[in-house]
Amino acid sequence: WQKMQRKRVTTEKVTDLFAFRVVTPSEEECYRTLSVVHRQWRFVPGSFRDYISLPKPNGYRSLHTTVIGPHKRAIEIQIRTRDMHQVAEYGLAAHWQYKSQGSGPEQLSADTLQWLRGLREIFESATHHSEGIEDTKLEIYNDLVFCFTPKGDVISLPERATPVDFAYAVHSRVGATCVGCKINDRPAPLDTPLQSGDQVEILRSRSQQPSAVWETFVRTGRARSQIRKSLRRSREREHLKLGKAIIEHEFEMAGEKFVPKTLSPVLKVFGYKTQRELFTAIGAGQLEGAKVVRAIHPKAHRKFAAKTRKGRPVKGAAVGIKGLKPGIAVHLATCCSPLPGERIVGIMTEGLGARVHTIDCETLERFSGDPERWYDLSWAEGDNVPGQIGRLRVKLTNRPGSLNALAAGIARTGANIANLRIQRRSVDFFDLDVDVEVENIRHLNEILVALEASAEIYKAERVTKR
To answer: Which site in 196, 205, 423, 460 is 20 to 30 Å from 288, CA atoms measured?
Structure first.
């Protein structure tokens, strides 16, 4: 039933609904038996699998074939030796124990040892046991395809595995630095499903890092666990950098000079052993930087508290918002990131003020049943707000000078790049998210027009959701 669900076929298409297993004294007898079977009955083309010469990574060895038997029924036949049968039925550990009852433990093959080490890596890379078990299942319960490196080494992978899976199967460093691939000497996308017999060449770059997109299409537990591990480390580095910047900013707003050693006395107060752990927690949003500064300089913090900014507050008419009573706090929503010049509405929340959304923001659907909370707002005519952040998603050609063309195109419009992040990189293109400082929606549209006119830029569009 599970095979029918996985392959989406009826019982007539399941070839091993009727199956026989033949156990022989030796490998030579396995191949002789196969020859007899094929002479006696017509075999189904494409059904033969030789797991003796190409064992599965978990140590499974056997010959599989499907023939058309009596009453024109498809029958699967498995042919193996007694030792192979022991592994198939009871696993490597039981077989090893069985063999060691004689003259000592049998040595496992290099492929099997590599597979066992891979399982250990999966569990070591997992943050939770459930995650490790899920990824381990991907390694155990899969039909296989056999692909080749340019040097002729065989790499066994589950069905629909991709070049990224192949790269991680070769070595974790090969997978982490993969930027592209060639399948049978032809460039191909990294999410291409591999077929048995494919020769795969992995293109690498030392500057490459695993992409979060890879996790959506890889098929092996080893690749998935290594990608998660790399992404987790990358996030920790970003949180560390951000947390330190937040602390420095909070000290500045409190009117105090930031000196790292002043943090040592409060580490135990917040339950951290090192400054690195503290910065990472602040960057991840697990701890407010203001609380840390308040614990060190409570009086100074209260004195300068009025200067702190949370989110992106707008000070009423001073920034050109019309339609609200003076004194009401106004915040620009991060779900749609409205810019001056766009049609806007405000959603009032008691105690928090009004949050400004674009008129077509999807979040507004949540408030369709509360019309009393809606305010019709507008930007002050001719008012620009310097320093507003607009996010662009850019597909850039992967060749020298492309990033320079991107920066030059933005600079020509009088805008400044606030942040740049590479989301995905392939042999031909980069996908980047670029945060730019703009004055209004017209300014952002000018940037888009300038970028799309560049030969190095394939596509540029605005991203509203952060």
So the answer is: 423
Q: Say what the pLDDT of residue 249 is.
A: 76
16, 21, 26, 31 alpha-carbon torsion, rounded to 10°: -40
Q: What is the pLDDT of residues 365-388, one digit of tens each?
A: 888 888 888 888 888 755 566 677
Higher pLDDT, 225 or 307: 225
8 Å CB contact between 366 and 336:
no
- Nearest residue to 163 (alpha-carbon basis) of 194, 120, 141: 194
Q: Which residues of 55-86 are buried (b: 16+ CB within 10 A; e: fewer)?
A: bbbbbbbbbbbbbebeeeebbbbbbbbebbbb
- Total structural domains in the chain? 5
Structural domain range at position 356: 313-379
| Model confidence pLDDT, tens digit, residues 94-113 | 444 444 444 444 444 555 55
pTM equals 0.44
Query: Which of 228, 243, 262 is the C-terminal boundary of a domain?
Result: 228
pLDDT in tens, 321-362: 778 777 677 788 888 888 888 888 888 887 778 888 888 888
Same domain, residue pair 415 and 317 = no
Structure tokens of 456? 């190095």
Both 324 and 297 in a single domain? no
**What does the pLDDT read at residue 78?**
93
Q: Are 264 and 277 in contact (CB under 8 A)?
A: no
- Specify if 107 maps to a domain: no
User: Do residues 184 and 83 share a domain?
Assistant: no
CA-nearest of 232, 238, 186, 234 to 208 is 234
Q: Is the pLDDT of residue 297 over 70?
A: yes
Kindly list the distances between the CA atom of residue 197 and the CA atoms of 145, 150, 156, 162, in Å, as whole numbers in the listed order.
8, 12, 10, 14
